[in-house]
Amino acid sequence: MDLPPTVNRGARPGPYTVSIATFLIFAAMTPTVYAMYGESGGGLLMFSNIVVGLLCGPWAGTFAALLNMWWYGVVISLAGGDALTLTLFSGPAPYIVLLTGPAAGRLAWRRAQAMTKLEERESKLRFLAEHDSLTGLWTRTHFYAQVERHLVEPGRPDRTGAMILINMDGFKYVNDSLGYQVGDELLRQVAGLLRDTYGEHACLARLGGDEFAVYLPDADGATACARSAELSEILRNCTLWVDEQAIGVGASIGVTVYPDHGSNAPELLRKAYVAVVGVKAVESMIRESLEYDRFVLHGQPILDLATGRISHHELLLRMRRPDGRLVFPNEFIAVAERFGQIRGIDRWVATASIRMAGRLPGHRFSVNLSARATSDEDLIPLIRRELAENRVDPSRMIFELTETAAIADLNGAARFVATVHDLGCGFALDDFGAGFTSFSTLRRLPITHLKIDGSLIRGLSQDPINQRLVAAICEMAQALGMKTVPEYVEDEQTLLCLRAYGADFAQGYYVGKPGPLE
């Protein structure tokens, strides 16, 4: 190839010699490679902004002068060794570097190595900037960016999403008692649990300290609550091993949903924090109520429709705050289930109700138990022991389980109900009609009372369809030898309908409101 004559244009006359290492640094810093041609004996590389890498050391003056040129090129001659020669020339195209000589291929390979290492280092630095160094999850800033990218994605006006905030319980104790290395390992294992639970579809972050966040794209409120309950159950039943030490894991969880609770990631997360604070307060109140016996039982009368007299009372749980205000079950039962406190509540309710029966010998009681009661191996022995110690006739006690709880674990429910029945106690299937219990399912459970869900009873006198359903349930229960107890009876017309359909009992505000029995 014919080259134009060498020119200076203010630079010191060449040729110049620089080390290969210097050239590789300069070449690796070049932002764009336009093309590569040639074989091992020589080639042509074209670079953008080639001079930047050489503006250092003894060559600063020379290459500063080159910046003033409109057109220039550099001929690099490599005869071998660690040195190369650069010759300046003017030419029709800017930023041209000609590699000549037998070592040109080796220089190109070394440059490729240098660029690969640089790219790897930049990739690692970029990952460290975006991800938590301990767990590998997103940092708060980049978590926000990922969520916002999903929220503003075009073409989805009906987009939904759920934010789940996870605040580890007792983490400070782990750090203080076992050391920060154990705490760090615990956080890494919890991050692994989050990955296993939510998979690649979710966006996961460690926000700092013992706080994690999960964003579930396209999830609605019901899905988010179900997934958070699933995680809570996993954490509650999980024991992590760190340095041969078993550590139990628990967490407070807050859930918010886009767009109902916020229009952007920070707002969703802020409201999730508020939810966590509220959950923690309720959980603490439950724990103190169990420890200091702050639960109370109120009784709601149940009317015998055949005699017109009160047959028995359903005992309803209340939690008393330190200021004396009563807290109703809908405000704390879900939290108790999430934090594994529901079994303690079941045991308290069973114990307190049997002891109340011992103090009020003229009363019969119906007692609510949670779905977890069927798997609590300590509950039946407790009931048996309390009946004996308080000299209570078992037939005065009726234990209740909801229809949905029985369906969820039919085999476990059947065993539990049979055992309670063997003790001599009655058993009621609560909220019947809210689920989908079949005739064959009912026959598997030794139920003495069938409580008809209030959704079928409200406005019964004005609803022909529900009238037929309630009449059919009463007829079916009678064929199975069960007593029916319609709930939410609120007026005389409903009571008259129930008598006409053959119901055995009635419960609701028209019969009587709950209140203290002692």
Strand-helix topology:
Layout: E1 16-19, H1 20-28, E2 33-39, E3 42-47, H2 60-66, E4 73-77, E5 83-89, E6 96-100, H3 104-130, H4 140-151, E7 161-169, H5 171-178, H6 180-198, E8 203-208, E9 211-217, H7 221-236, E10 239-242, E11 245-248, E12 250-258, H8 265-292, E13 295-304, E14 309-320, E15 326-327, H9 333-338, H10 342-359, E16 365-368, H11 379-389, E17 397-402, H12 403-408, H13 410-423, E18 426-432, H14 439-444, E19 449-452, H15 464-479, E20 483-486, H16 492-501, E21 505-507
Helix pairs in contact: 1-3, 5-6, 10-11
Report what the structure shows:
The chain is of the alpha/beta class. The protein is 41% helix and 24% strand. It contains 16 helices and 21 strands. It has helices at 20-28, 60-66, 104-130, 140-151, 171-178, 180-198, 221-236, 265-292, 333-338, 342-359, 379-389, 403-408, 410-423, 439-444, 464-479, 492-501, and strands at residues 16-19, 33-39, 42-47, 73-77, 83-89, 96-100, 161-169, 203-208, 211-217, 239-242, 245-248, 250-258, 295-304, 309-320, 326-327, 365-368, 397-402, 426-432, 449-452, 483-486, 505-507. Strands 13, 14, 15, 16, 17, 18, 19, 20 and 21 form a nine-stranded mixed sheet that branches. Helix 5 (171-178) packs antiparallel against helix 6 (180-198) and helix 10 runs parallel beside helix 11. The longest helix has 28 residues, at 265-292. The N and C termini lie far apart (110 Å). The model is unreliable at 1-108 (pLDDT under 50).
